[in-house]
């Protein structure tokens, strides 16, 4: 009997019925071909990854430490054109064990200081990454520490003193007052978070044009190209004693490294693979501090902008300076070139083409390859 022919055997007989009831049987399904099975498996797998990625995105976004309220400061510069990110590397030891502090040679100092400060501007005229030396001689506004009630009067001091006194809030106020640049977003990472992020992307390749050995930071690099893990990367961006230009040489190296890190973190292999991307975006969350309006999309835009700088679509420079060894009551400081710096700040605030070159003499020790 063919499969598509009704089975004529009676299911049961009704004495009043003229004909017996019959049941039609479905033809058996043909087995799925290998191609169809693989296609179905791929669809299920992709759907699962999309759900996992979306869940990871939501989780990371909710874990961000949004402690900085940029809108509560008084007398802020007007909203400019484009977007300005203030990127800060602090010496926070949060999340580091005693063993990690010793191996990374971070010390155990309490309180807060900044190791790097950069303004990353994005807009219609491209991307500019401008470093602000932490020893810059600036006017620090008056401030009252909420936790102690101690009042600090307005005074000339090093830029790093603003962070030490009032953390991110006073630092942003000081930078805005001295530059006239409206800061749209704030992102700060501590020592532990920096190490975790570098390790999460599998290290960052850097090339140096000479041997560099610095006992204070623990750095020991040979001339040439090498991949730096989290510990070596931290030593590299902290060291300045071996730089001919001191703090300015360090800021140049920090720019090079952070741009290379952004380039590595934004590669298709990292972003397209949820299992690779998740550790990258989640690494360092314990020490990441951002403003209240920052979200994960903003952070990814920041990384993409930094990546663009490394690919020649932007500029990297230091704030123009006239004196790298200004004698002050607070020790040696860095004095900005007033005219050139004012011109540069105005160009960034108004999203105009940047025409002021870096005043840093010589060339940094690192190069991105």
Automatic annotation (TrEMBL):
Q: Which NCBIfam families match?
A: lytR_cpsA_psr (TIGR00350)
Q: Which Pfam families match?
A: LytR_cpsA_psr (PF03816)
Chain segments annotated as transmembrane:
41-60
Assigned protein family: Belongs to the LytR/CpsA/Psr (LCP) family.
UniProt KW Membrane keyword? yes
What are the UniProt keywords, alphabetically?
Membrane, Transmembrane, Transmembrane helix
Q: Where is this region: Disordered?
A: 350-369
Q: Which InterPro entries match?
A: LytR/CpsA/Psr_CW_biosynth, LytR_CpsA_psr
Q: Which residues belong to any copy of the Cell envelope-related transcriptional attenuator domain? A: 113-266
* Protein's UniProt keywords contain Membrane: yes
Name under which the protein is recorded: LytR family transcriptional regulator
């Amino acid at each position: 009997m063919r499969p598509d022919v009704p089975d004529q055997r009676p299911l049961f007989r009704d004495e009043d019925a003229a004909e017996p009831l019959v049941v039609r049987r479905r033809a058996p399904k043909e087995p799925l071909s290998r191609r169809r099975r693989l296609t179905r498996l791929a669809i299920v797998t992709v759907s699962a990854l999309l759900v996992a990625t979306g869940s990871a995105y939501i989780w990371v976004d909710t874990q961000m430490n949004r402690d900085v309220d940029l809108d509560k400061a008084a007398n802020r510069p007007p909203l400019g054109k484009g977007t300005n990110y203030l990127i800060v590397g602090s010496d926070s030891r949060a999340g580091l064990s005693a063993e990690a502090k010793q191996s990374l040679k971070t010390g155990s100092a309490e309180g807060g200081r900044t190791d790097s400060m950069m303004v990353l501007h994005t807009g219609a005229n491209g991307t500019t990454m401008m470093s602000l030396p932490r020893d810059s001689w600036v006017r620090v506004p008056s401030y009252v520490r909420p936790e102690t009630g101690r009042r600090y009067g307005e005074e000339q001091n090093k830029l790093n003193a603003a962070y030490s006194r009032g953390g991110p809030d006073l630092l942003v106020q000081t930078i805005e007052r001295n530059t006239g640049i409206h800061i749209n977003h704030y992102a700060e990472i501590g020592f532990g978070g920096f190490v975790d992020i570098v390790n999460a992307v599998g290290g960052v390749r850097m090339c140096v044009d000479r041997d560099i050995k610095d006992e204070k930071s623990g750095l020991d690099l040979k001339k040439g190209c090498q991949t730096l893990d989290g510990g070596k990367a931290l030593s590299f961006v902290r060291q300045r004693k071996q730089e001919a230009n001191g703090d300015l040489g360090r800021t140049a190296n920090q720019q090079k490294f952070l741009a290379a890190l952004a380039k590595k973190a934004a590669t298709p292999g990292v972003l397209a693979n949820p299992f690779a991307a998740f550790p990258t975006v989640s690494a360092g969350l314990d020490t990441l501090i951002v403003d209240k309006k920052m979200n994960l999309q903003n952070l990814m835009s920041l990384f993409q902008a930094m990546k663009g700088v490394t690919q020649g679509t932007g500029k990297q420079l230091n704030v123009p300076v006239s004196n790298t060894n200004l004698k002050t009551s607070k020790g040696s400081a860095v004095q900005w070139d007033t005219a050139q710096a004012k011109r540069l700040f105005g160009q960034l605030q108004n999203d105009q083409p940047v025409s002021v070159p870096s005043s840093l003499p010589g060339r940094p020790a690192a190069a991105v390859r």
